[in-house]
Amino acid sequence: MAEDETTDLRSAGFDELLREMLGRVQGVIDEQERLRLLLDAVVTMGADLSLDGVLSRIVEVASRLVGARYAALGVIGCGPNRPLSTFVHHGMGTEVVHTIGQLPRGHGILGHIIDRPEPLRLHDLTQHPASYGFPPGHPPMSSFLGVPVRIRDRVFGNLYLTEKEGGVDFTETDEEVVVALAAAAGVAIENARLYGEAALRQRWLAATADVTALLSNADPRGVPSDEVADDALQAVVTLAREAAGADLVWVVAGTPEHPTVVAASPGHPDHPGTRQPAIPAPVGAHPVSDEPSAVPDASEAGLTAPGWPTLGPAVTVPLRTPDESYGVLVLGWCPEHAHRHQDLDLSLPTTFAEQTAVALQLARARADQQRLAVFEDRDRIGRDLHDLVIQRLFAVGLGLQGTARQLEQPELAARVEEAVDELDATIKDIRRSIFALGSTDARSDLQAEVTRMVDRAAQTMKVRPTLRFEGPVRTLVPAEVAPHLLAVLGEALSNAARHADAHAVDVHLEVGREVVLTVADDGRGLPPDTRESGLRNLRQRARELGGDCDITSAPGRGTSVRWSVPTRRTAG
């Protein structure tokens, strides 16, 4: 201890000595408490694998460590001006945040630290030359401490602390503690980002596996190969949207001069997720490049058109094999979800598109092969009918005609002639059947069968039912569900024709995670004495498949039958 300090202590009174000792003891205790809190923060941050959770935890702990009223962490984004892509804050209430409006983008003091990533302590941040000022409603702030958060040699963002408790300035010790916290935060953030990237890759791998399984399990018999691909593309855009967290996903074919949207995710302005014929897209909606690419602004890249939602970043990936192209897969994000695009590795959708194109090619080849096998089998049956059955029937007819001429009783001769006429009619029917065997009409197509049932029902009703399909009906409805679905549709249409006396009947078949069939009319409703046998059968069919059947009806307000079963049965 220095001589002058010893002299001061000797001349001081007992109370002053006691206060000095207690102050130093309290300082040691505070320092130990701060170190313990810092250690706990490092441990808890490392245990959280969610990036959002890690960032929130960092600002909360930093505020407690140095006694700051307000704390925030700004994540530096991409671009020439390096704006803040994410701003996580602590200390301001919801009403204050709502009043301020848009969060900081990296101007003023915040931009100064971005340009010069080193610790900065200020007595009054408003007096700094780089001060940008506060927006209306912003709480007053004076004392300031800013520290960069680094991941290896790259600055991830900056940690900002203002308004130290007691109205004093942040100390050098505060700066050292926050620098130590920022170093630990960089490690935790890197771990969270790696975990997020692994989870994202897992989603893309699962989407690729789902597409492959979907195309492998689809039954293309009797369905043209082009329709197999179109239905599969509808599932592709849905899976890609879920994997990437995109707002809009579509597949566009054709040329830049004549683009056509052949499949799109729900929410697309021209294609609300319903399977329908190809939709002409506005000029400019077709990507020009045949290589995978990412663009920061979809409108500037020509990937949007009047009437479409405002999109920010976008990714275009070709769906092609060395032999064939199925179009271009386009993923778009709204500006507020641009961070999802920044987290996306372009190789993930590229690999997904490559595997999808191969699966589409195999599905088309398998569909063509099965159709060829069907045609060959039909040709064989036609030859057998023509060469064997028709010839034998023709010979029997000739024999009966000769017998009829020899009969003396006119009644017997007439009956034999009738038999000969029946044989001739049978031969004609067989020939018509042989001709039908050579046609390419897809009689085993579920979507076509539903359409035919509705058309037949229209012949017995006063009105023609409207029919809507949503989702990949041809490929996603399990084989064991299709017969039940057709039976339920037939029963519902029959009830509407016999009892409803309706002016409008709507049939809606939606396929996604569930197969949902809805038949609704605006008729008189179910009569009180309606037999429950038919309705009970509908419910029983749904229960057997793990689903449900909801029937609502009111006098004068019509009847609605909603029959739903899961697309995939769960093991149990």
Protein model, in words:
The structure is a single chain. With 572 residues, the protein is of the alpha+beta class. The protein has four domains: 15-194, Beta-Lactamase, CATH 3.30.450.40; 219-361, 2-Layer Sandwich (Beta-Lactamase); 368-437; 446-566, Heat Shock Protein 90 (2-Layer Sandwich). It is built from 14 helices and 16 strands. Helix 7 (225-244) packs antiparallel against helix 9 (347-406) and helix 9 runs antiparallel to helix 10. Mean pLDDT is 75; it is low at 25-29, 220-226, 271-280 and 439-443.
Index terms:
elongated, Beta-Lactamase, 4 domains, 49% helix, 16 strands, alpha+beta, 572 residues, six-stranded antiparallel β-sheet
> Could you tell me how far the N terminus lies from the C terminus, measured between alpha carbons in angstroms?
78 Å
CATH architecture of the largest domain: 2-Layer Sandwich
* Widest β-sheet, arrangement of strands: 8-7-6-11-10-9
The secondary-structure class comes to: alpha+beta
Task: Pick out the low-confidence regions.
Answer: 25-29, 220-226, 271-280, 439-443
Number of strands: 16
Task: Return the string of H and E elements.
Answer: HHHEEHHEEEHHEEEEEEHHHHEHHEEHEE
**CATH topology group of the largest domain:** Beta-Lactamase
Q: How many domains? A: 4
CATH evolutionary superfamily of the largest domain: GAF domain
Using the CA coordinates, give the radius of gyration. Answer: 37 Å
β content, as a range?
Answer: 15-25%
The outline comes out as elongated
CATH class of the largest domain: Alpha Beta
Strand count, sense and closure of the main sheet?
6 strands, antiparallel
Mean pLDDT: 75
Q: Helix coverage percent of residues?
A: 40-55%
Tally of alpha and pi helices: 14
Region (Disordered): 265-307
Protein name: GAF domain-containing protein
GO cellular component, one term: membrane
GO molecular function: phosphorelay sensor kinase activity; protein dimerization activity
